[in-house]
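tool_call predict_complex ligand=zinc ion
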Amino acid sequence: MKTLLRGGFVVSARSCKRADVLIDGEKVEKIGHVMADAPWDTQVVDVSGCYLFPGFIDAHTHFDLDVCNTTTADDFDSGTRAAIRGGTTSIIDFACPNKGETLAHGLQLWHQKSDGKCWCDYGYHMTIDDWNDGIERELDDMFAAGITSFKMYLTYPAMLLPDEQIYCALRALKARGGICGFHCENAGVIDAKIAELKAAGRAADVSSHPLARPDYLEAEAVNRVLRIAQAVDTPVVIVHTTNRAALAEIKAARRRGQTVYVETCPQYLLLDDSLYYDPDWARAARYVCAPPLRTPDDADALWRAIRHNEVQTVSTDHCSFTPEQKDMGREDFTKIPGGVPGVETRCELIYSGGVAKKRITLRDMCRVLAENPAKLYGLYPRKGIIAPDSDADIVVYDPKANHVLRGAELASRALYTPFEGFETVGSIRSVYLRGKLAVDRGEVVGGRDGQYLMREKCML
Ligand code: DUC
Ligand code: ZN
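tool_result ok
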């Protein structure tokens, strides 16, 4: 049986047009005024007054990840259930072998963690936290397994690679048409600042976290990565960009002719570092993530950069820990497991805080949440657009159905949201995953139907 979504406004990165969408099986068949073409037994769903977005893609999640001697609250089961409830029909998580392990081992481990458990479609980036001939040889296997994007870190001792190895790894990826994302923070100076803060008796202060990881040390690392990329002559992705100084480094690289793709996240657009100074330690600790939250001025710069197409994607860096897990850092702020939940709330936050506030347009929202991530990570046009033959991943957004975000009501196992009490403008009415109703009026009605995504090379 076919399904006709009737009377809505179909949003793309270029337009927002009144049109009906006919779904046949897992695919979009037609768009336009297609009622006359629909067979008699077509299921007609009235979506008048709603926006129809292509299913959103969150290209930055961490599910079932071991951090700081604990494991994220969300695994692939709860994490992808939260994702689909929030309008995300595809996630790309970071497979993460430990130093000394093979990429094949990391890939196998991530399949074990996720296969058969996912409520939305899923793929992986591969983390490169070690570099040697064996790993270089394995890159071809990764491409054969549908992994075309990678990640390297400029911070965290367990992940960090020296500049020479970053250069060699980027050169090897360039030769194969791969793309790499970078976590940009300066490791050495941050460690020195942590030691100073502890020596000054500030180990138990959550506010030590942002003081140890200032914006300019992120900007320094962004600049270093971009200069290494210049030496290799290859595009790179700067993930979870938080601030104006980092954006200035990116602009400078673009001015000298480099291609740089930029990601930011809702927490950097809508929250700020004053939250670390909450006298309630437990409340402040909920916002510990790396890089940390920045200033309202930085958030303004990021919104502007989205408007001007200088930021290509908004993902979440969903890395969830319960308040009880955050408590592990009561005496030592460096032991607070870093990360915030976000996969479930991204769409409503960006609509409410971005589109409804006229900071960005509906088309911008579609571009950074769907079309660009699909192009950047080799899923387009199967994903990222509502068009004939694309997967019928569709989010029906009702702009009049406002509600209030409450951590206790979310599917994530984090048991809180950093946006507690946030009043949304509108909400997700329903979500289709490859033609099948997966969310209906806030209830997850689909199953663990997520499929592993074999991805092509970057096409942005
Ligand atoms: N930052 C976090 O806060 N958590 C997980 C990984 C990261 O980069
Ligand atoms: Zn991350």
